[in-house]
Structure formats: structure tokens, C-alpha cells
TrEMBL record:
It comes from Proteinivorax tanatarense. Homotetramer. It holds the Pfam family Beta_elim_lyase. This is Tyrosine phenol-lyase. Keywords: Lyase, Pyridoxal phosphate. It catalyses: L-tyrosine + H2O = phenol + pyruvate + NH4(+). InterPro entries: ArAA_b-elim_lyase/Thr_aldolase (IPR001597), Beta-eliminating_lyase (IPR011166), PyrdxlP-dep_Trfase (IPR015424), PyrdxlP-dep_Trfase_major (IPR015421), PyrdxlP-dep_Trfase_small (IPR015422), Tryptophanase_CS (IPR018176), Tyr_phenol_ly (IPR013441). NCBIfam families: PRK13238.1, tyr_phenol_ly. Belongs to the beta-eliminating lyase family. Its cofactor is pyridoxal 5'-phosphate. The gene is tpl.
Length: 458
């Protein structure tokens, strides 16, 4: 019988032992953590699918690059290496390094947003919207409607609805819209890509109205790979060629290097406008560090530069997407409700369908993430009503998607690990009617999903 998956395009040189716990130990650990998987100790986790952010395995070339770290406080040679990589792969003129992606989001929001502005985007992301709102803007979701339907099969579910975008411009005026935040891919839709055709159309509307196009390019290589697979005219283009074209339609980008940069920390803000760059460098000194390191060590910048190139290698990204699909297909074949089509960085469980007897304000996704940990030691992440937070009036946002994210770190786990995950989820699904929801016992005012605590409902 032939293999049913693509073998790893790498070999393992170093291993790390992981803990194996009993069910009793996990029950105690999740209770101590307030049923919030973010508050678990990693030593109590068997397979960690909380995030793909900073959890990647670096290559031998990246580890070698660490030894080239120039830790000068100003003028580090590693900054030049990073800047050259961004200019070469993405085409942006200016690079402002930051400690991670949210540092770039903070600076971009402060230099572009005025009180009363609106920022459209193809679905919100937690930290991005928080920075926009803290600087006085209102976020408007302009993603296509299909993105909010977990069962709908669409090759580019992250696309902007151009009519929604134009309607917002007509409603509030272009002068109230500093930029559109275009995520490639869209995390909370299930890791869904944006087509090149849609990117071009967004850029055309934006430039006609004097609105900047700012990409959240955290997973830009995954987006490029989907374009290569699914969009007419791109099958014979290299990942690098597709990446370069994608960014040619943007005025700037925020980047968390902890994803497609294949490193454990770091990020940057990339820009083309010299005036915005000047404003950004003034703020990076306040919040991050000198413009030539911005919260990173020299060795981190060297590793990101190498990682950006490695991420654009076709063999790497093909295996990356195939690993995610492997897990998704196993769950789909067992009847487990997941977001379709399977995305680029994670498999998303539809907790509304999984626990259809638990109301959304009893946090079915949070419940499912906690129960999966107890079942198997697999740590996942809630992406539903808890992550969505509250509006300015203090009421819950009720997102249409109530999801649990099984996020696959890059170059870390084998297919055997994914089999364990699949078997655990399937077992939970068989016994789903026994689950009970949760209630808050502690709720922070901002980004509550990170540190909130819950207890089981009776």
C-alpha cells in the first residue's frame, strides 16, 4: 500500500522530549488554568497546537546565521541583511524591525489613524483590531459573505467583497479611511487565501480613492502557494514571482516573522512612503528600539532573513500545506465538522456544530479546546466569541464562526502526531452530547482570550 501523504522535505537533526501526562493530571492542570489553554504550562502539554507563531523549528542555516549576530546598538549589519531580503522578496523600500507583528500594528495604527476613522478589512484579527480601536478607528468587515460560512467551499474565501468596500467609501468618505487592512491569508476565516485578481481589484479601488493598501502578510507564502494551486495563470510561476506580484499592489505591510519567517521572535513594518517611514522610525524608538534593531537582536534579524527565503521554497510550502490537509481530511472523513476548504496553517473545528447543544454565550469553542486537552494532552486555541471580545457598549461580539484552531507549527510534528490529534478529536465528537459549557470568573478588558479564566457550568 502506497503512502497517503507527502514525506518531509527535511531530516531531523535534534529532538526535544515532550511530556506524557495522565488524564487525572490533565484534569487538574486545566482546572488550575481556569479552562484556558493559554494558561497551561507547556510541560503539561503533549502535542502543542496552540499556535504556529514562534513555535517553528529553525533550519541548520538559520542556526548558523545566529552566529553572525551583530549586536551593535545601532547600525547592525544584520539589519541590512533583513532589509535586503524584504526588498528582494517583497519589493518594499523601507523596513522598520519590531519585536513581533503587533509591534508593527501598533506603529502603523499610530502613524495613520485619526479619531473617527474607519479601517476596513477582510475579517478582523484580534491584536490588529485592538490597535486600530485604541487609536480611535472603527473596524469594518468587508470580507465576502462566504467567509462566515464554515461549510461553503470557495477557493479564495479571504477575498474582499468589493461592493462592501465601495459602500463604506460612499458612506463615510475616503478621507475617513486611512488604509484597508488586507490579510493574506485570513486567519479567523480558517486560514483562507485571497486571490491575485481580488488583490488587484482592491488596489485599484484604493488608489482611485487615495486609500493605502496595508497587508497583514504574516502568512504570505501560504497565500502565494494557494494562488499557484488555484488561480488560472499562476500554475507555472514560482512562489517568489507570485509573492513579488502580490506585494506590488500594496503600499506597506505588517509582518510577524514568527510565522512565515520561520523564527521564534521578531517582525517588521514594511513601507514605500518616505514620510510614513520617518514617522515610523520616530515611534519605533519609543516602543521598540533603534530603527536598526527595533526590539530584536541582530541574530534574530539574520534568522528571519534566511527564513523568508526558505519559506518561499516550493518543496517546503507544499509539504506545509499537505500536513494541514492530512489532518483536515482525517477529521472530515470521520464526520467531524470543520471549516472548508482546509486552510493553510491550521484545521479549524466548527464548535457550533460540534457542540450544537451549548449556546454561544456559554463558550462552546472554549469548552471544546479545554476538553480536547483533557482527552489527549493536545493544546488548541479558541477562536470564537471569547476571542471576538466586546463592543464599545460592553456587549459580546457574536461572530458567526465559533471555532477551535488546531494550528500546525512549521517543521515540528510528524504525521504520527497528527494521527493522535485526529483520533482524539474523533473520540470527543463521539461523546459530544456529554459536554457542558463554561462561564467567566475573570475577564480582562482587552484581548480577553489570552488571560481570561472560566469554570464549568453545573
Amino acid at each position: 500500500m502506497g503512502k497517503s501523504y507527502m514525506a518531509e522535505p527535511y531530516k531531523i537533526k535534534v529532538v526535544e522530549k515532550i511530556g506524557v501526562t495522565t488524564r487525572e493530571q490533565r484534569e487538574e492542570a486545566i482546572k488550575k488554568a481556569g479552562y484556558n489553554t493559554f494558561l497551561l504550562d507547556s510541560q503539561d502539554v503533549y502535542i502543542d497546537l496552540l499556535t504556529d507563531s514562534g513555535t517553528n523549528a529553525m533550519s541548520d542555516d538559520q542556526w548558523a546565521g545566529l552566529m553572525k549576530g551583530d549586536e551593535a546598538y545601532a547600525g547592525s549589519k544584520n539589519f541590512k541583511t533583513l532589509k535586503n531580503a524584504v526588498q528582494d522578496l517583497m519589493g518594499f523600500e523601507y523596513v522598520v524591525p519590531t519585536h513581533q507583528g503587533r509591534g508593527a500594528e501598533n506603529i502603523l495604527s499610530q502613524i495613520t489613524i485619526k479619531e473617527g476613522d474607519y479601517v476596513p478589512g477582510n475579517m478582523y484579527f484580534t491584536t490588529t483590531r485592538a490597535h486600530q480601536e485604541m487609536n480611535g478607528a472603527t473596524f469594518r468587515d468587508v470580507v465576502i459573505d462566504e467567509a462566515h460560512d464554515s461549510t461553503y467551499e470557495h477557493p479564495f474565501k479571504g477575498n474582499v467583497d468589493l461592493d462592501k468596500y465601495q459602500a463604506l467609501i460612499d458612506e463615510v468618505g475616503a478621507d475617513k479611511i486611512p488604509y484597508i487592512c488586507l490579510a493574506v491569508t485570513v486567519n479567523l476565516a480558517g486560514g483562507q487565501p485571497v486571490s491575485m485578481e481580488n488583490i488587484k481589484a482592491v488596489a485599484e479601488i484604493s488608489r482611485k480613492n487615495g486609500i493605502l493598501v496595508m497587508m497583514d502578510c504574516t502568512r504570505f507564502v501560504e497565500n502565494a502557494a494557494f494562488i499557484k494551486e488555484r488561480e488560472e495563470g499562476y500554475q507555472d510561476k514560482s512562489i517568489k514571482e507570485i509573492v513579488k506580484e502580490m506585494f506590488s499592489y500594496a503600499d506597506g505591510a505588517t509582518m510577524s516573522g514568527k510565522k512565515d519567517g520561520l523564527v521564534n521572535i521578531g517582525g517588521f513594518l514594511a513601507l514605500n512612503d518616505p514620510d510614513l517611514y520617518t514617522k515610523a522610525t520616530a515611534l519605533v524608538v519609543v516602543f521598540e528600539g533603534m530603527p536598526s534593531y527595533g526590539g530584536m537582536t541582530g541574530r534574530d534579524m539574520e534568522a528571519i532573513a534566511i527564513g523568508l527565503y526558505e519559506s518561499c521554497e516550493y518543496n517546503y510550502i507544499s509539504h506545509r500545506l499537505e500536513q494541514v490537509r492530512y489532518l483536515g481530511k482525517k477529521l472530515e472523513e470521520a464526520g467531524v465538522p470543520i471549516v472548508k476548504p482546509i486552510g493553510g496553517h491550521a484545521v479549524f473545528l466548527d464548535a457550533k456544530e460540534f457542540y450544537d447543544h451549548i449556546p454561544q454565550d456559554e463558550f462552546p469553542a472554549q469548552t471544546l479546546a479545554a476538553n480536547l486537552y483533557v482527552e489527549s494532552g493536545v493544546r488548541s486555541m479558541e477562536r470564537g466569541i471569547v476571542s471576538a471580545g466586546r463592543n464599545k457598549e460592553g456587549n459580546h461580539y457574536y461572530p458567526k464562526l465559533e471555532l477551535v484552531r488546531l494550528t500546525i507549527p512549521r517543521r515540528v510534528y510528524t504525521y504520527a502526531h497528527l494521527d493522535v490529534v485526529a483520533d482524539s478529536v474523533i473520540e470527543l465528537y463521539k461523546n459530544r452530547k456529554n459536554a457542558k459549557g463554561l462561564k467567566f470568573v475573570y475577564e480582562p478588558p482587552v484581548l480577553r482570550f489570552f488571560t481570561a479564566r472560566f469554570e464549568l457550568l453545573k
